[in-house]
Amino acid sequence: MRQRLLPHPVLTLVLALIWLLLVNSFAPGHLLLGLLLGWAIPLFTRHFWPEKVRIARPLVLFKFIVIVLFDIIVANLIVAALILGRPKKLRPVFVELPLDLRNELAISMLANTITLTPGTVSVQLAEDHSHLLVHALHETDSEALVKKIKQRYEAPLKEVFEP
Amino acid sequence: MIETVIPIAFTLVALAVVLNFWRLLFGPDAPDRILALDTLYVNTIALLVLFGIYSASNIYFEAALLIALMGFVGTVALSKYLLRGDIIE
Amino acid sequence: MIEYIISALILIGALFTFIGSLGLVRLKDFYTRLHGPTKATTLGVGSLLFASALYFSRGGELSMHEILVTLFLFITAPVSAHLLAKAALHLQLRSLAEPPEAESKRD
């Protein structure tokens, strides 16, 4: 019963929040309308959402988001310094990152995080989802880079989405 | 304070737009041009936001949001065309 | 006080936006050029939007509108960068880094 009436509680909350931001008002009426939309939209589009999102440990996810936001700022300072420095001295490389994650949402979150953080852009996901090709702007030690990404970003995502 | 900062910010973002146009015109390849176009969208959002602060008016946000949406869809469509457009097999 | 924070955010935002576009022109191959706009410009516009949210919240009425645009940019910028990189790999553009064998021959 609960499955049919409220198929995606997380999506409902996110949609309600987006509605509140869109109308730029936190009045009770808008809160109600937002919750109504958040309830109705997943219900009418449920065929587009075959997988259910399970967040096993919200606190780890929150910590992960804080770390990523911090890293985005650091990434920008590093990339800005590289751009303003001498472009000829850059050593760009392609690095193959072996993936432990299997959940598709987790993989796409990892790819997005890699693009937003220090000097790396995710380029291509292997068809069997076993590798992610990453382009680094300036990196001499590709093994250390792989190790850093796995420890800092992949481990918490695995904990959250694949307990 | 804000009044003195805004013209400087306008100048910087306008210069950024000029640089984007340079890349848009001189390529050399299609992905470069699409990337320039995508950056142009983002810089336009920056200009709109600055103009909103400058004129102390909230009504430019819908435009900024729409440019963000359309810019993303446009970039995705163009890259998809590059990926699927020239079919070798 | 809040005026100074807003001014600083506007300046930082405009500076990063400019640096991102400078990277687009200065760097030597497509893959390195991809780094400028995806990072610097996104953060630049993000901090401009944050400044605007603070500016319109000064009067006491909260203005969270801008957070939505920021969120949207932060989610979509990596996606479009990823697609562009994929397209570039598919077209086998000139690259300063050694392109991986297996990937460029596939498709």
UniProtKB/TrEMBL annotation, chain A:
Pfam families: MNHE
Subcellular location: Cell membrane
Segments traversing the membrane: 64-84
Keyword Iron-sulfur in annotation: no
Record membrane topology: Multi-pass membrane protein
Superkingdom: Bacteria
GO terms of molecular function: monoatomic cation transmembrane transporter activity
Gene Ontology CC terms: plasma membrane
Main subcellular location of this protein, as a coarse class: membrane
Keywords: Cell membrane, Membrane, Transmembrane, Transmembrane helix
Sequence similarity: Belongs to the CPA3 antiporters (TC 2.A.63) subunit E family.
Protein name from the UniProt record: Multisubunit potassium/proton antiporter PhaE subunit
From TrEMBL, chain B:
UniProt keywords, alphabetically: Antiport, Cell membrane, Ion transport, Membrane, Transmembrane, Transmembrane helix, Transport
Transmembrane segments: 6-22, 34-54, 60-83
GO molecular function: sodium:proton antiporter activity
Membrane topology summary: Multi-pass membrane protein
Main localization (coarse): membrane
Record-linked InterPro entries: MrpF/PhaF-like
Keyword Transmembrane helix: yes
Compartment list: Cell membrane
Highest taxon in the source lineage: Bacteria
Cellular component, GO annotation: plasma membrane
Family to which this protein belongs: Belongs to the CPA3 antiporters (TC 2.A.63) subunit F family.
Protein known as: Multisubunit potassium/proton antiporter PhaF subunit
Organism of this sequence: Thiohalophilus thiocyanatoxydans
Upper classification of the organism: Bacteria, Pseudomonadati, Pseudomonadota, Gammaproteobacteria, Thiohalomonadales
Automatic annotation (TrEMBL), chain C:
Record carries keyword Metal-binding: no
Species annotation: Thiohalophilus thiocyanatoxydans
Transmembrane region(s): 6-25, 37-55, 67-85
UniProt keyword annotation of Oxidoreductase present: no
Protein name: Multisubunit potassium/proton antiporter PhaG subunit
InterPro entries: PhaG_MnhG_YufB
One family name in Pfam for this protein: PhaG_MnhG_YufB
PANTHER family: ANTIPORTER SUBUNIT MNHG2-RELATED (PTHR34703)
Superkingdom of origin organism: Bacteria
Coiled-coil intervals: none
Annotated keywords: Membrane, Transmembrane, Transmembrane helix
Molecular function per GO: sodium:proton antiporter activity
